[in-house]
Amino acid sequence: MNFWITSFIFVCLATQAFSQEYLVRFNADTEESRNKFSQMNGGRLELVSKEGILYKWTGGHRAVPKVDSTVSYLSKNKKIRIFQSPSLIENQRALFNLLNNSDMDRRGPAYPDNPEIKSPSIQASGSDPLLKNAWGMFSIDAANAHNSTPQGKGIVVAVTDTGVDYNHADLINNMWRNAKENPDNGIDDDQNGYVDDVVGWDFHSNDNKPYDLSMDLMDILLGSGNPGHGTHVSGVIASSLKNNIGLAGVAPQAKIMALRFIGEKGEGSTESAIKAIDYAVANGANIINASWGGESGEEDEQPLKEAIHRAEAKGVLFAVAAGNGRLNSATGTSAGFDIDSDPKPISPAVYNFNNMIGVAALDSNNELAAFSNWGKNSIKLGAPGVKILSTVPGDRYQDTLIDFGSITATWDGTSMATPFVAGALAALWSKDTSQNAQSVKAKLLGMVTSTTSVSSKVETGGRLDLHSLR
Ligand SMILES: [Ca+2]
Ligand SMILES: [Ca+2]
Ligand SMILES: [Ca+2]
């Protein structure tokens, strides 16, 4: 029996708050209002978003802080967790035994954290040997984007995720480089609030090396963890074309801004997600890739909504994963659901701001993946999201994590579908960088190919397809 272990789907589940961590939105950013708050509640206020007048409150003497009229609202600082695969959970023991009795190299983390950030390298030329195995690139006709556009040149895509292996040979030349920052001088040269931020920032560990620290498969099986999610996402967007190695992304001249906010254990917070979004907007990203989300209700989501709204106001597009459904306990598989009508939809995909493009996942037969959520209002289109080949840390490439013949874990998820769309937006935008966000979005959505499996499930009724691009 073949199991498609949709484990590395990485929709994150926002559930519990940190104990005594609240996000506080003030009406005005004045010392007086902050002092009053601190007097009432004790503890510490740290700035989360200057633009959002948002602070994090920790360590006070109350469980829930008291507020006065200077406070606009309070919101719990939610944990954002990896949403483990139902089939992984159901088969955890069997997988554990198989791995334990195999000679598979699973030492880890194989790649130590925070390697020095290398400079761009001289690349060989020649075709990309693995590109022929990347079915998704053929499905969307990425070759036409390579031939008909400047391939994303001049466009910056912020990958808000688990970090990026910024030294990966197929990514190193496409990392965004902060031209206004002098590396390693210990000074915040561009005065953006971050010292020596060369390729982005790590909002999880608060350092200038947003490296994609991963865990070994056994640890991931035993709990949860990151196998290199952000690096995989980045390769779909902008791995280098015709450099004689690996594959090529949809927009191989676009630049990747690495914004790590989910750690190696697969956990982040609302606070760090907001910081990553604000950084992207303030530092020149055109597109944000958000291959994350969580089950939600309306409660405690205002800060994240406001951050995405700030991106919208600055003309930054936001490609977002529809989410990977929920566990069907009867079958042990994950079943997608309609996030438009669900009382616990997936956020942020359901917010539906004008800059958002929600993405569902399709398989190589253009069927909607069994785990993929949908939504006629919230989700715009489908894109490849089953067994996706891309870059992973340590100059490697994967479409499959575990292959025991009888049990296979592949790189599946709406997380994998979203960067196809982010890359396509970058390619389109690069044709004329003076276009505005709405125009680029409209062009992309106007190019979809009608697809039966999503005809009544996504707004366009179709899938990402660049074949009509001229
Ligand atoms: Ca700086
Ligand atoms: Ca780091
Ligand atoms: Ca390549």
What do these coordinates show?
This protein has 470 residues and is an alpha/beta fold. It has a single domain, classed as Peptidase S8/S53 domain (Rossmann fold, 3-Layer(aba) Sandwich). It contains 11 helices and 23 strands. The strands form 7 sheets. A 7-stranded parallel sheet has the order 7-8-6-10-12-16-17, with helices on both faces. A 5-stranded antiparallel sheet has the order 3-4-2-5-9, sandwiched between helices. A hairpin with a 3-residue loop joins β18 and β19. α10 (414-430) crosses α11. It is globular and about 65 Å long. The model is unreliable at 1-18 (pLDDT under 50). One calcium ion binds next to loops. One calcium ion is lined by residues 114, 202, 205, 207, 209-211.
Quick recap:
The chain is an alpha/beta fold and 470 residues long. 22% of the residues lie in helices and 23% in strands. It is globular and about 65 Å long.
Question: Topology of this protein?
Answer:
Elements: E1 3-5, E2 12-26, H1 31-41, E3 44-49, E4 54-58, E5 71-82, H2 86-90, H3 92-100, H4 135-139, H5 142-148, E6 156-161, E7 200-202, H6 217-222, H7 229-238, E8 255-260, E9 267-269, H8 270-282, E10 287-290, E11 294-295, H9 302-313, E12 317-321, E13 326-328, E14 333-335, E15 346-347, E16 356-362, E17 379-384, E18 390-392, E19 396-398, E20 400-403, E21 407-410, H10 414-430, H11 437-446, E22 449-450, E23 462-463
Parallel strand pairs: 1-21, 6-8, 6-10, 7-8, 10-12, 12-16, 16-17
Antiparallel strand pairs: 2-4, 2-5, 3-4, 5-9, 11-15, 13-14, 18-19, 20-21, 22-23
Helix pairs in contact: 7-10, 8-9, 10-11
Bound molecules: calcium ion (3 copies).
One calcium ion (CA) is lined by residues 128, 170, 239-240, 243, 245-248.
